[in-house]
Design brief:
With about 150 residues, this protein is of the alpha/beta class. It has helices at about 20-40, 55-60, 95-110, 125-140, and strands spanning about 65-70, 80, 85, 115-120, 145-150. It is rod-shaped and about 130 Å long.
Length: about 150
């Protein structure tokens, strides 16, 4: 501060308090030391599987229902495939017994299907022919029936 002439003149020394700056610098040093330690600890090799399946994907794969495919055959009979097993073309009560035993056998071999059967029918097959297949499924160990349809 300057005083008027004639009196003693003096200047106040400008000063800057370095304490907060030093505190911030030390905090930054500590932060970077800690971060560099975490990064060094994460540098290790990990072998991952080629195909990664989550628990949900695995569960979805295991819960695939047993599929019964019904196609027309000559002489008013129908051909059926229970899973990957093709059955002889039959009609009536013989078809009911054959479907029941094939479904039971397939559900025993593949318990992961959850006792669910998916029925796929060709659109040219009348319900009168499908009722024997439905009866065979009802007499089997199957607990649920999904009827696959195609929207037009």
């Amino acid at each position: 501060m300057l005083k008027t002439p004639g009196k003693k003149q003096f200047l106040e020394a400008a000063s800057f308090d370095m304490t907060p700056v030093i505190d911030v610098v030390f905090q930054l040093i500590i932060f970077f030391m800690l971060v560099s330690q975490f990064i060094a600890a994460e540098q290790f090799k990990v072998r991952v599987p080629d195909q990664i399946k989550t628990a949900r994907q695995q569960e979805a794969v295991e819960k695939v229902p047993l599929t019964i495919t019904v196609l027309p055959a000559p002489e008013g009979k129908v051909r059926c495939a229970v899973g990957d097993e093709k059955l002889a073309p039959l009609q009536g009560k013989d078809l009911t017994r054959l479907i029941c035993s094939a479904v039971d056998e397939s559900l025993t071999r593949h318990p992961a299907s959850g006792n669910t059967v998916r029925l796929r029918c060709d659109k040219s097959i009348a319900f009168g022919q499908v009722k024997y297949i439905l009866s065979g499924i009802a007499q089997s160990r199957a607990e649920n029936l999904d009827w696959a349809v195609q929207s037009e």
